[in-house]
Amino acid sequence: MADVTLVEAVNMALAHEMAANEDVVVLGEDIATNGGVFRATVGLKDRFGFKRVMDTPLAENLIAGTAVGMATQGLRPVAEFQFMGFIYAGMEQIISHAARMRNRTRGRLSCPVVFRAPFGGGIHAPEHHSESTEALFAHIPGLRVVIPSSPKRAYGLLLASIRNNDPVVFLEPKRLYRAVTQSVEDDGEALPLDTCFTLREGSDVTLISWGASIAETLEAADALAEQGVSAEVIDVATISPLDRETLLCSVAKTGRCVIVHEACRNVGVGAEIAASIAEAAFLDLQAPVVRVTGYDTIMPYARNEMAYLPQVADIVEAVEQVIAL
Amino acid sequence: MKDRYAFHVDSIAYLDESGDALGDLPEWSDDRDTILDAYRHMVLTRTFDNKTIALQRTGQCGTYPSVLGHETIGTAIGQTLAKDDVLVPYYRDHAAQLLRGVTLTEMLLYWGGDERGSAYAHCPEDLPVAVPISTQCCHAVGVGASFRIRDQKRAVLCSLGDGATSKGDFLESVNLAGAWHLPVVFIVTNNQWAISTPRHLQTGAETIAQKAISGGLPGIICDGNDYFAVRHALMHALERARTGKGGSVIEAVTYRLGDHTTADDATRYRPAEELKQAWEREGVKRLQSWLHHQGLWDSDREQALQVSCRNQVDKAVEAYLATGPQPPTAMFDHLFETLPAALAGQYERLQRREVKHG
Ligand SMILES: Cc1ncc(C[n+]2csc(CCOP(=O)(O)OP(=O)(O)O)c2C)c(N)n1
Ligand SMILES: [Mg+2]
């Protein structure tokens, strides 16, 4: 077992699956010789060759569409977008083809592509390198949207995503890429998709989050524990399709819920979760569901990005608010 | 079979690697003052570059793309554009943007992570840097179409890298410029690399200039380290555009002498020998040599120039470092023309949060 960072766990999962299944190929900008700008694909070219580890021209629409074409031939492409901010040129291929190929052909063709992209703020990068627009993908029927928040989940969920026979948008919180290490066994064991992970059990309030905000959410849970408040922490992990069952069971137990996400608030995934809880667990609630989110603004550039991101104190304050009710 | 269509791509160069004229220089080369200005500006740009990299290394600036090896192209762009032409830049156009009126301090603010760096106090119509590669090409043809709709004799200069020519944005824009006969000149800085991706992996085409042909535009190659060649190509192309003869593509061939940005380490993918050879051809030294040969330059002047550039840059850095960040609520200030009622609550919460947490 090795102590690895989240980005190293991504690399481990890619290498494992490429060794196990020769239909797995990876493509993207600067991923072969350079090993990716975040080093997620380091070493793959040397091990598996240029034929399966492809540096593409600079063209995201092409990357997405080429992956779709390969998938119709039974390959399992893992396409890297250098940053989520540059995936948009590939949206037509992802939305209009990847998500629909199975439905369109009544199951004759499918699209087992993984579209990987680093996302989120907090690394002081230039414009377009810090946003969290996962809701755009969650809105599209036929797409899975998976977000790991630890090295272990990065490894297990990426394996599951590659093995899944449908397209997965796999979003990697780059603020966590090197934030912590965890011992991860390279045993090829996938983790389940479409399932939330309960990271900590609690009885007073349910804290729901995903991606990088899991770090602040866990910290807030620690702070709350010191105040005698027992918080359950759930990592949604697959934000679409949503495992409502786990969320509703937790809220039935705690009666209170705070949703935390870095993305802006308006029509965010938090809104879907809150609506689901209002629809199905209204009578369990002892206080309104509260969201702690980014603002409905353009993500500020580096100098002010920390003012945009939800902080531990914001989460604690929100919990205090729902507990007081 | 009959020849249906054959194309050719010309290339121009005036100086050899050591700064000697290969033949007759263009007529405009009699204007020695402008050439001296060009050299001074290249040195200023390089001084700024060194300083900004140092600021980044010491945590005082964000990720920054070095302009090393691109000074000649940018300087020629800045000198050739008319005041009422429009520059649609990319992120390595420091030299051109400075000549257009963007200040050193604005540039530092931009790369330091402050939106005010694109507010450009002195060039009201130039577009800001578009970070998503190649997207600016479509804006450029939009600006060009506006000139045509209004019958204005103005030109647009759209700047991009070799990697950017692989995106539809560029090809679609070249196509439109041809179809609508737009006054748009595309200048492609072919510095041989797009981060770690070498030029030959971008396209199987022999030259980038020939991509112009598919849209019905002429394409030309110039030595991007030869000030006379770049400026001459630009003068010709912009004049054509302004006089209703349509757009064109210039491939300016140079070499990225630095890392892609301060976040990159080019030794991972680039042969040291290639870099060493590229230094032999670089443009600033080449123009300096030419000036020397003409008796227009000497080491005293060089020393004085270095000092004055350093002073200028130091002043800008001082102003940058003295500019505190905007208040967090600034993120709402220019979201819309006026703040919609629906966002007033968030604005007020952010204001309160500032008081509480900071
Ligand atoms: C659409 C898009 N994809 C990817 C990136 C990340 N990226 C930034 S610069 C760059 C390479 C650009 O190369 P080139 O066009 O040759 O310009 P150069 O940096 O060499 O001057 C890439 C891939 C981006 N900014 N935008
Ligand atoms: Mg380039």
Write structural notes for this entry.
Chain A has 2 domains: 2-184, Rossmann fold; 197-324, Rossmann fold, CATH 3.40.50. In chain A, 36% of the residues lie in helices and 20% in strands. Chain A has helices at residues 6-20, 44-48, 60-72, 91-98, 101-104, 134-138, 151-163, 213-226, 244-254, 269-281, 305-308, 312-324; strands at 2-4, 24-28, 53-55, 76-80, 114-119, 144-146, 168-173, 182-184, 197-200, 205-209, 231-235, 238-240, 257-264, 290-294. A 7-stranded mixed β-sheet of chain A has the order 3-2-4-5-7-6-12, with helices on both faces. Chain A has a 5-stranded mixed β-sheet with strand order 9-11-10-13-14, sandwiched between helices. Chain B is 45% helix and 9% strand. Chain B has helices at residues 32-57, 71-80, 94-100, 104-111, 136-149, 168-179, 199-202, 227-242, 272-281, 283-293, 299-322, 330-333, 344-357; strands at 10-12, 86-88, 156-161, 184-190, 193-194, 197-198, 219-223, 248-253. Chain B has a 6-stranded parallel β-sheet, with helices on both faces. The termini of chain B are far apart. The model of chain B has no long low-confidence stretch (mean pLDDT 97). The interface between A and B is large, with 39 and 43 residues. The structure holds thiamine diphosphate and magnesium ion (MG). Thiamine diphosphate sits between chains B (92, 131-133, 161-164, 189, 191, 193-195, 256, 260) and A (29, 58, 60, 82, 86).
